[in-house]
Design brief:
Layout lengths: L8 E6 L4 H5 L6 E3 L6 E4 L3 E4 L2 E3 L5 H18 L2 E8 L5 H5 L13 H15 L5 E12 L2 E4 L10 E2 L2 E3 L2 E3 L6 E3 L2 H12 L4 E2 L7 E2 L2 E12 L2 E12 L6 H4 L3 H25 L14 H5 L8 E9 L6 H14 L15 H53 L2 H31 L1
Parallel strand pairs: 1-5, 1-17, 6-16, 6-17
Antiparallel strand pairs: 2-3, 3-4, 7-8, 7-12, 7-15, 8-9, 10-11, 13-14, 15-16
Helix pairs in contact: 2-4, 4-5, 10-11
Bound molecules: adenosine-5'-triphosphate.
Adenosine-5'-triphosphate (ATP) binds next to helix 3 and strand 14.
Length: 432
């Protein structure tokens, strides 16, 4: 087992200058001091040291192998893990996380598809020791509302609430899909991401206007016993932005206010957790849904990696410095990672009971469907009998006695045939 980081890990990734920045003659103001060293220098004056620094030439593979791969191993050991991309709008968060994966495998794929490939490969290798049951869920936080992106319902009905129980924050009714391979999970990612709120802004052609959390839950089972249950949250935050600079108005401005509010609350939590004085004091997780959902990832029992994405361009200098200061505070947060063994938490107990309830209902329905068909026919036989008896009463009044007896016998024979045939229909219905 590799060592467990005690503080939040922070990787900084500098994206390359974009075409439009080149065209505008922007200069790069950020540089990695030495390639391979985790230090970044801004305007040749301010120096920051992080867990990892990736310059504009770093590949997606390098970012994954250096900073994420070992965290995926921890997930399978039973730790909760979180990977969180933070940064100004257009700084490369979605590109780095791979949240907008479209199904094409190439060198450009981001963290989520790489993680899934690794995870399912490792599960395959361990299959003689354990059985792993994996589920995924995908939520979006848009203007302080939480949406279940994997639900088939319409946008309004996708909205879900959050609440807390003894085991932490829960989202009752959230769609959790059982998945058996990387490809299957990626299909859910693609489907969920297509429902995400995206819009074009002056700073990013396809800007995400919401925060998203893609979660994998891994249950390791041996001899029908739950050995560990661990969660991986892959978080793609909406970009922080200054509305004056983005010239946002109307819907974009409203989104921007909510995005910044959530990020401000997150910043306050990070600052409070990172400050030694406040570690035992009050942490304002309840100020926003974003901080409530990330409560366990910051200051909880999770192994957490924040990837701070920055633009190298001089016209983004202020935002870059602000991101680096934010990230620097996150570096001081102490978490208490621990293995989540198979002891049932209250939430798991609820999940188990829900599953059991579902199973019982299905069984009950199966039992109910057979008698319903029989009783339907049975009822119609009874009805027919009643009707025929009423008719017989009428007939008896007008027929001579001997003809009436003959008629009664014929009617009874017909009823008998009907009963026999309906029993045969029931048998073939039940078989089908
Ligand atoms: N390291 C990189 N290498 C090459 N291109 C990159 C890199 N990082 C980002 N880009 C490109 O920059 C643009 C903006 O990136 P992206 O959409 O990931 O930003 P973002 O931080 O998620 O923005 P927003 O917060 O507005 O959603 C995209 O066209 C993306 O392909």
């Amino acid at each position: 087992m590799t060592s467990i980081p005690e503080t939040v890990q922070v990787a900084v990734r500098i994206r390359p200058l974009s075409h439009s920045e080149h065209r505008l003659g922007c200069q790069s103001v950020t540089e990695q001091v030495d390639r391979g060293e985790p230090q970044i220098c801004v305007r040749s004056s301010e120096l920051f040291t992080f867990t990892h620094v990736f310059d504009a030439g770093s590949s997606q593979r390098e970012v994954y192998e250096t900073s994420v791969k070992s965290i995926v191993d921890k997930l399978l050991e039973g730790f909760n893990v979180t990977i969180l991309a933070y940064g100004q709008t257009g700084s490369g968060k979605t590109f780095t996380m791979g949240t907008s994966f479209e199904g094409k495998y190439d060198d450009g794929i981001g963290i989520i598809p790489r993680t899934l490939n690794d995870l399912f490969d490792q599960i395959g290798e361990q299959s003689s020791e354990f059985r792993c049951a994996v589920t995924c869920s995908f939520v979006e936080l848009y203007q302080e509302n939480v949406y279940d992106l994997l639900s088939y319902r319409n946008r309004f009905e996708k909205m879900v609430g959050i609440r807390e129980d003894a085991s932490g924050v829960i989202i009752p009714g959230l769609t959790e899909v059982p998945v058996n391979s990387a490809d299957e999970t990626l299909r859910w990612l693609i489907q969920g991401a297509s429902a995400r709120a995206v819009a074009s802004t002056s700073m990013n052609k396809e800007s995400n206007r919401s925060h998203t959390i893609f979660t994998l839950t891994v249950r390791k089972i041996r001899n029908n016993q739950l050995v560990t249950i661990s969660k991986m949250h892959l978080v793609d935050l909406a970009g922080s932005e200054r509305s004056k600079k983005t010239r946002a108005v109307g819907d974009r401005l409203r989104e921007s206010i909510h995005i910044n509010k959530g990020l401000l609350a997150l910043g306050n939590v990070i600052a409070a957790l990172g400050s030694i004085k406040n570690t035992k004091g009050y942490i304002s997780y309840r100020d926003s849904k974003l901080t409530r959902l990330l409560q366990n990832s910051l200051g909880g029992n999770s192994i957490t990696l924040m990837i701070a994405c920055v633009s190298p361009a001089d016209y983004n200098l202020e935002e870059t410095l602000s991101t680096l200061r934010y990230a620097d505070r996150a570096l001081k947060i102490r978490n208490k990672p621990m293995i989540n063994n198979g002891e049932l938490t209250a939430r798991d107990e609820i999940e188990r009971l829900k599953a059991e309830n579902h199973e019982l209902r299905t069984t009950l329905e199966q039992f109910q469907t057979a008698p319903v068909i029989v009783s339907k026919n049975e009822r119609s036989v009874q009805k027919l009998q009643e009707q025929s008896e009423n008719t017989l009463d009428l007939i008896f009044r007008f027929l001579p006695i001997e003809s009436a007896g003959d008629f009664k016998q014929k009617t009874n024979e017909a009823l008998h045939r009907y009963r026999k045939e309906s029993a045969l229909w029931n048998a073939s219905d039940n078989k089908n």
